[in-house]
């Protein structure tokens, strides 16, 4: 593959949504109702830049660009545009342009419309960075940005409890999966040695043959399954319908829910074609496909119906990726593009119906075709594509995936049955949304239904038309989009050539059977809905309720742990801290067999013996002190003895510093102690004081052994040589210690000074408070007490 540099254009395309997000409040105030058209120029320009790369990408080229981010850890802010990333990026920016325009009409007059524009554009930029990212850490940053920005969008109407719950649920589930994905990326980086997608894809079977493959597989799968709403993690997606309709249309068509599918397609050449991959993905995908479609037919709210069909479609995509054959990947690619177009269009139709008829309840709608003809045509076009009817691109996807599952063995027959049942249910759901609100008689409760403004019906009619034009001009469609995308996902060049003209074969027969079954389900949808409700009511418990139970359990456990660990007693905190410190000192030395060798007693001079005796006297004085002030002063003896050692060893500057620090510490500690109402001595029984004494002795012994083991290691003069060489050359100082304190670690020294200054100010405040209390006049006993 040819490597092409496109630093300026690629960087601009990535930055444009974020720039527009920052300017959105200003543009809304300046351009009022026309702000959407101005802001839509940002994703439109990004689309144009990315579209200009298509000829090179269609010829097998890969565009790469980036910048060093954290070179010490081999982390780059790097990006890669191949057929897979390019198609995703064009869907994100192209549909994103229509969504921005749609938001301008749908939310016109909303008090927080400028905030919404900022959120949706940030979300767009996050998703665009995710699909273009090459470096693993860069990908993870954008992955989490999509979770955060989707949280803001789902909870946009934060005055409503359901919106807040939906936002928290989405963040908790996708955020948890994101942490698992981060762990998987760390394993890939640190154990497998790959920092980017380019390295992973170039390594062939390296990850599949790695001893860490199983751990990497499940961690990556957790991230993908939570993001792309595979059961039982699907519950966040229908609850995300509490977001405004533009969010639903964008989130379900080309962005967040497709992130997990994108990751699986991207990693398929490196992680696919193993027993785990070809077993777990198809099973979970098939279950999600059928259950999501069944729940879609059960729903009565248009948005909820479409939400569950998205869950079902994501299951179909995961199932095909899990099968992993060339035909299955081609079917997944075709279906992904088709789904992005028809699902975005249908969600905009749902918003248009809500905007024009003021309800989304299917049972309360009817007869809207005469009043909203453009919306009706757009709905039919998108429904035909979703139902797999020719000549729409949904037909191309359905034919290809049926071809891919024609294996004959029981496993593939079961997957084929799941695909037929799921597609038939989705066919029914598509026309429940696209037909029932528009045909029949207009209900009396609906007054003056009307077509929306241009910005509201433009998006669905464009996406519906593209669903038709993509199939009619399938040669161009395949050469620019589907074939390069499938080639990148498979890992070798492939050419998709399926057209809209049907051929008499098994796949076409199964397609016709799917449509016939879908029509039957459509006609009997009311009975199926009642039966499904009875079953679900009998079951009672479900993942959505389980999420609430899990959250309540988490709060209870957190409260219990907090009450145990944060008791409010300082002695408890000190005991736990010292025990942890003792464990940290002793465990590594014992496990690593690094205990120091007992040293020989050195030949000490008489004044050195005096200092040692002084230290021992100070320790005894602290232990036997009758009041706390005496113990504090006696404790200062240890610091002064250390200062004497520095002086005797020829370091007067260190000695002076130690004298000052120790004096200040004793003074501050004594002043603080005088402010506390403490008993003059410790009157606890021996059974309480002995354990504390043992812990304290263990801490002292641990530090002593640790320092002794350090001194017994071979001396490494590298750091000393560095300071000797550069202290004068760089800092122009002959006193190396002073140069280290003032120059090499000047910020640290400034922090220490700030700490001492803050402590001094606190002590001064305490003293002033005490003086003020002493000078306060005594109350007059002759005055009556109020």
Automatic annotation (TrEMBL):
Bilayer disposition of the protein: Multi-pass membrane protein
Domain MrpA C-terminal/MbhE: 691-769
Localization: Cell membrane; Membrane
Keyword entries, A-Z: Antiport, Cell membrane, Ion transport, Membrane, Transmembrane, Transmembrane helix, Transport
InterPro entries membership: CPA3_Na-H_Antiporter_A, MrpA_C/MbhD, MrpA_C/MbhE, ND/Mrp_TM, Nuo/plastoQ_OxRdtase_6_NuoJ, Proton_antipo_N
A Pfam short name: Proton_antipo_M
Gene Ontology cellular component annotations, sorted alphabetically: plasma membrane
Domain named NADH:quinone oxidoreductase/Mrp antiporter transmembrane: residues: 133-416
Principal cellular location given in the protein's record: membrane
Domain of life, per lineage: Bacteria
Sequence intervals crossing the membrane: 6-27, 39-63, 83-104, 116-133, 139-156, 168-189, 209-226, 277-297, 304-325, 331-353, 374-393, 413-435, 456-477, 506-524, 572-591, 606-625, 632-650, 656-678, 690-710, 753-771
Gene Ontology annotations of biological process type: monoatomic ion transport
Designated name of the protein: Monovalent cation/H+ antiporter subunit A
Domain NADH-Ubiquinone oxidoreductase (complex I) chain 5 N-terminal: start-end pairs: 71-117
Record-annotated MrpA C-terminal/MbhD domain positions: 613-677
Organism: Jiella flava
